[in-house]
């Protein structure tokens, strides 16, 4: 049932709006408020799918109500009600976050169409949020160890900012999960997350990949092409294995960070970009700097926030949760019931030397599920999980 609040100080207009909406659809639950202060109090206590709010009211006008609601419940959909002299103000409220406005006296068709469209939009927003939650489960960080709890706390503090983050740790520890969580919990989550594996791109192509190129810039450049920084505009770019990037490309990345501009290969034209940069590496960048393979000035630009992801051997207490998680995901992918692991099997897996970290554990769990008994036992682990 859609919950609608009508905030209008003119009793006759308020009654008409409530009557029209109540009679239009028996699934509308319509509340009313005689001024902005009363309306704001109701919004604080209830979650409304739609608020119709007059602009000119005593005690607290509609613009003030709109600004207050967008601070405390920004997802609330608000349609302004404007008198003839308030049209310019009504248009300006849309810049402040109002969905639309209707004029007094309200035209029946215009009112009902606006309400339907606004409620449909609200439903889409809710569906998108639910979908995003489902997507984020693919990048969920599993664990309750002190190290993982610390990382989760850091993400909560840092995600809402535009601070650059450098994620370090061995291969297979889940550095990309940290990057995804940072993006999905940020204000940029509706924008793109562009991932670049710097180690997988040949050094002669990395600059073209990152910054794009113009036609004729090199032999195979048969047309203009945008780079990954441009593709990430308004969102986040994740530079994985940045320690493998060439010094030439590092210099251009440094300029992009300093000036928020990039140049396509073969062009001298600047292109403005609004991008948050998250980087990751399995290398010791301080050692790379000492040996002349990584720029110190770029390191300091990237490492505003440092997040160290520990190897699995340093968080063995998370292994039971990880096994349960992987068993559930593998069963879901195969359309089968999840297999359980005996306590002795789990204990034995906790004692292994996980040089391949979480990636290796996931592979071993899948192997045990395929080859093991209905309940994976200690003997299954000895048979199929041996190094």
Describe the structure.
Residues 141-370 form the Sigma-54 factor interaction domain. Residues 3-119 form the Response regulatory domain. The chain has 387 residues and is of the alpha/beta class. The chain has three domains: 2-134, Rossmann fold; 140-310, Rossmann fold (3-Layer(aba) Sandwich), CATH 3.40.50.300; 313-384, Helicase, Ruva Protein, domain 3. It is 46% helix and 17% strand. Strands 2-1-3-4-5 form a five-stranded parallel beta sheet, sandwiched between helices. The longest helix is centred in the first third of the chain and has 29 residues, at 108-136. The relative contact order is 0.08. The model has no long low-confidence stretch (mean pLDDT 90).
Summed over residues and divided by their number, the pLDDT gives a mean of 90
Could you please say which CATH topology of the largest domain applies here? Rossmann fold
| CATH superfamily grouping of the largest domain | P-loop containing nucleotide triphosphate hydrolases
Strand-pairing-aware structural class: alpha/beta
Count the strands? 16
Low-confidence region ranges:
none
In the CATH hierarchy, what is the architecture of the largest domain at level 2?
A: 3-Layer(aba) Sandwich
Please tell me what the overall shape is. globular
Strand order of the largest sheet: 2-1-3-4-5
* Sheet having the most strands: 5 strands, parallel
What's the CATH C level of the largest domain? Answer: Alpha Beta
Amino- and carboxy-terminal Cα gap: 58 Å
**Oligomeric assembly:** single chain
Helix proportion range: 40-55%
The Rg value, from CA coordinates, equals 28 Å
Number of domains: 3
